[in-house]
Amino acid sequence: MLIPQSMAYGTLAGLDPAHGLYTSFFPGLIYFIIGSSKHNSFGVFAVISMMVASARYRIIPENDHEQYSIDEHKNTTHHNINNNTLDLGTALTPHQVVASLTFATGMFSLLLALFNVSFLSLLISDQVSAGYTAGAGIHVFSAQIDKMLGIKVNRHSGPFKLLYFYRDLIGNITSSEWIPCVMSAVTFVVLIFFKEFLNPFIAKHSRFTVPIPSDLIVIVVGTLFSHYFNLSTFSVEMVGEIPSGIPSPTLPNLHLIPHIFGDAISISIVAYCISMSLGKLFAKKHHYALDANQELFALGAMQSISSIFGCIPASAAIGRSMLLESSGCRSQFASLIASLILLVVIYLIGPLLRDLPVAILSVIIVVALKGILKQIGDAKFLWHVSKADFAVWFVSFWATVILDFTYGLAVGVSFAFTAFGFQFIGPKLSTLGSFDETDLYLDKRLYFKVIDLPDVLLFAWRAPLFYGNAVWFEEQIIKIIDHSASFKENYMMRRKGEDNFLSGESLTEITSSLQPDVGDEVNLPAKSDKLHIVIDFSHVSYVDVVGMNALSKVLLYKVLVLLFFFSIIHYSNTDNGKGISIECKR
């Protein structure tokens, strides 16, 4: 699986298959030394390769790299024909663009590791990640269609590039070549037969658990068939010359980094999220610790070092990692062995594959996308479980499909934050009552057999109390107080004595003692001429200054109310400037 997919994903990134092999060799070797996961297999991955291709074709459109140059003084890019890209003074090649992108990706990962901010990956929720990778899968699949049909379609970059691609594809559909079409269909059927039927059957009915390497088989057979029948003379696109050996180390072009740094940030985050998700899964299953910051450092070191050899940004590959784990591998020695095998391929076997049809590599990529594209089916599950989570997935998916990778990730994360924030905005107050003379206090809207306590109002606030909902908190409580019969009666009885009660310039201090470990019984003061309010804050994880001001206003309301707060988790001290200080004790 490693060799065919490395070659296929190398072409997917807009380079030749050799760079895919380099990317599976160097990162795996480096991760063997400094990584903490025992099962992750690092190398090229479809989603990352497609993100790389997006940046590569934006900087250097297909078949146009000879006309690009860099002006190292102006730090801009210029195209001699279209006048719409870089002005960089020296000739650019796709390999230089990708090497610089890999270096920038590694530097950003190392920077995050240096400041120990690996937690930033948590900002990408599972729904954003699933929608984003599914949308990226659509891009990967689309990029293979023209190759499988033998059609030449130019690559586009930026928002709506997929729409432009399908417009051009439909316009050129009549120019399809029958040999690539037949070859793609046969390869697809063979791979599906092996992966979906034969390998599962063998695994079920025998002790032979290692699957038959169908990808490698179709590459060997396809190359031999193409070579002996000389298919290159029938307008069948071939892989071409694959250089033997490892390229000489070359420093990346640093003047390119400002033009690709946004792509580098996105790739770094996505690669880390994929690698950590797989690593946590295996670590939990096999009971070992996974250091998140060490993983981030390992990724950064891999990208930075491998960039000098022209490698593509690497990440953990889902399919290969799962295969390694299921076959019984328990350490990164498997990665070391795989790297040594790749070294043999790079020096001896790679040059023999020059007659391999590109259509076969495209089919290998499409079949490998099965797991990613299956995530589209998760949308139905999310719809039934949580409409908010479905909305996050839906927006992330379509933003990635329509707007491209970097924009899709930014839109998905932003929408998830917005949707999460809206869950806490608005009225979150529940009025409680005693359930059938028991010690249970339940929501009066949900239960019928609840009764009010005399001179006591019970509330529960079920969200953080912050600027987004503090007004509703204040207005809801005051509205209920105004409509409380006990309050009205109490207010009329105290009206004549109110002037005496408020006379003088003394400072009234109301102290709320907030005990997190409260017993089942709530000891309220003895019978009083004031209305007692009990607010349950067990669901409140945070109170900001605006929230504290709302509490102050409730305390000050007609100065006839005693409040008792319970189970405050996080609070802050404030002085509202009106003679009332609120002291919160934990």
What structural class do the secondary elements suggest? alpha/beta
Strand portion: 5-15%
Question: What is the β-strand count?
Answer: 13
Please give the largest β-sheet: 6 strands, mixed
Residue share in helix: 40-55%
Give the distance, in angstroms, between the N- and C-terminal Cα atoms.
58 Å
Overall form: elongated
Q: What's the helix count?
A: 21
Question: Compute the gyration radius: what is it?
Answer: 32 Å
Mean pLDDT: 78
Domains, number: 2
**Low-confidence sequence ranges:** 65-85, 499-522, 570-586
Describe this structure as you would to a colleague.
With 586 residues, the chain is of the alpha/beta class. It folds into 2 domains: 2-354 and 362-418, no CATH class; 429-495 and 508-585, STAS domain (Transcription Regulator spoIIAA), CATH 3.30.750. Helix content is 53%, strand content 8%. It is built from 21 helices and 13 strands. Helix 2 (17-34) packs antiparallel against helix 12, helix 3 (46-59) runs antiparallel to helix 9 (257-286) and helix 5 (126-149) runs antiparallel to helix 13 (358-368). The chain is elongated.
Concise account of the structure shown:
With about 575 residues, the chain is of the alpha/beta class. It contains 21 helices and 13 strands.
